[in-house]
Structures are given as structure tokens and as C-alpha cells.
Amino acid sequence: MTKVLINQKLVDEQEANIPYNDRGFIFGDGIYEYIRVYNNKIFTAKEHFERLLRSANEIGLDIDHTVDSLTEIVKELVVANKIVNGGVYLQITRGAAPRDHRFPTPPVEPTLMGFSKSYGRPFKDMDQGISAVTTEDIRWLRCDIKSLNLLGNVLAREYAEKYNADEAIQHRDGIVTEGSASNAYAVKDGVIYTHPINNYILNGITRQVVSWICEDEGIPFKEETFDVDFLKNADEVIITNTSVEIMGVIKLDGEKVGNGKVGPITKQLQTRFNHYIDTHCV
């Protein structure tokens, strides 16, 4: 029987329940992380849980957890569900309380929930590349917080689905920000460009890994804004996230990117990413 984590207890998924007035349901008042599992181990756990704690602090959510305690909780879920390769979703809400936009007074116990799933690595898409469309970024102005409020992302992803694309790359007033569920990059003349870290994007964990790889490999990595035209004229377009890892975009808004194949910089990053898996799992 598949186990689900509810407030630090592992329960059968059919018995898992959360109060109807949990603020995560009513307001999207909470935060989350999605962590990859490779060979029974958690990838970049420290980075993920440091970001979770930062998100909690940014929304004024006091949680009684550390990086180490969260890591152990996720490990228990991985073991319980025998996850060899896959991922774990972990979210924390402000808890259950009568509906009121104000924070509960006095504070109530936060609700912690987690579940896992098994799946392999996306080797086929990494080799062949994917397609994307561009769309206006209509999300709120604190995209650096990994909050449960994802309606803007959902609508962007559905826009991509409408045009038979795999991802939507968003822009604010023509300046590329990030994908609906990914960070986005343009490669031009051997240089990788990506949006600077600020409130318009999430500082993705895979994005951080890419920056480390670039430093090790001597690949120029520039955190600079660029517009949609620059993206469309790039030699390579890349997206990254925890699930897809490092993915080449070979078609954008129905037109070929570069020569229409996964480019050499993308492949170099993918190869080095494999080494990071070996050395950054716990």
C-alpha cells in the first residue's frame, strides 16, 4: 500500500485526509518543494530544504523544522514506498483555521503533507529535444517564493498544451523570465544567458547546478535579461527543472531553434549533470 505523509506520520493513501478549512485549500497559503530521487537517494536535499525554509520565512510561516529534519522525513517516505528513481512532493501550509484572510490568531499548527512517485529519467526527450511556446507572464510579483499559488503557471502550461508544445516560456513586457515550470536559457556564441535572480523568477535548484557546471567547465554564464527576439534567434534554448533536468528546446513558437537539434552546450551540461547526481545525493 502506498504511503502518504501527513504531519510527520506515514499513513495509507486511502486513509490520508486534511481538514476542509486548511488554508492551503482555501487560500493557497503555503509552500512546497519537489525533490528528485536517484538510486534510492535524495538529490540536492540541502539546497531544496534551504529554499523551503526561505520560502516559509518570506511568507511569515513559522515551521519547527531544519534541513536535517526535513531530509529525514523525506528519506522515510522514499523507503516506505520503495522509490528507486522518482520524486517526492512536500508541502507545508499555514494550517486549518476558520476562513479569514488574516493569519490565524493565535497561530495554528502548520499542515505538512508529502507523497512520492516512481519514474525514470527523461533520456528520450533529452536526446531529441522538446518544443515550447512563448506567452505573457501574468503571475504575481513574488515568483522567488515557491508558493502553492500556481494558477498563472497552470494557465501558461495549458496554453502550451493548446499549441501542442511541451512548455511555455514566459515574458514580462517582452523580457524573458522563465518557463511555466522551469528556468529558461538562451545560448548565443557559446555564452549561456538567463534571467537574473530576483522576484520575477524562482531560483531553481537545477539552475544552481547549471551555474556550478558552467564554472567548472569554463562555459560563460551570464545572468542578464534578454528579450523574446533574442531567445528566438539563439543558437540553443534550454529549460531546466527538477523533473526534466536539462532539456534542449528545438522548436519555439513553431520555428526551429538553431539547426533544429539539441545543441553542443546542452549536451555538455547534460553529461556533466550525471556526475553531479553521483556526488550530490544523500
From TrEMBL:
GO terms for biological process: amino acid biosynthetic process; carboxylic acid biosynthetic process; D-amino acid metabolic process. It holds the Pfam family Aminotran_4. Its EC number is 2.6.1.21. Its cofactor is pyridoxal 5'-phosphate. One of its GO terms (molecular function) is D-alanine-2-oxoglutarate aminotransferase activity. It is an enzyme of class 2 (transferase). It comes from the Bacteria. The keyword Transferase applies. It catalyses: D-alanine + 2-oxoglutarate = D-glutamate + pyruvate. One of its GO terms (cellular component) is cytosol. Keywords: Aminotransferase, Pyridoxal phosphate, Transferase. InterPro entries: Aminotrans_IV, Aminotrans_IV_CS, Aminotransferase-like, BCAT-like_C, BCAT-like_N, Class-IV_PLP-Dep_Aminotrnsfr, D_amino_transT. NCBIfam families: D_amino_aminoT. Belongs to the class-IV pyridoxal-phosphate-dependent aminotransferase family. Homodimer. Acts on the D-isomers of alanine, leucine, aspartate, glutamate, aminobutyrate, norvaline and asparagine. The enzyme transfers an amino group from a substrate D-amino acid to the pyridoxal phosphate cofactor to form pyridoxamine and an alpha-keto acid in the first half-reaction. The second half-reaction is the reverse of the first, transferring the amino group from the pyridoxamine to a second alpha-keto acid to form the product D-amino acid via a ping-pong mechanism. This is an important process in the formation of D-alanine and D-glutamate, which are essential bacterial cell wall components. This is D-alanine aminotransferase.
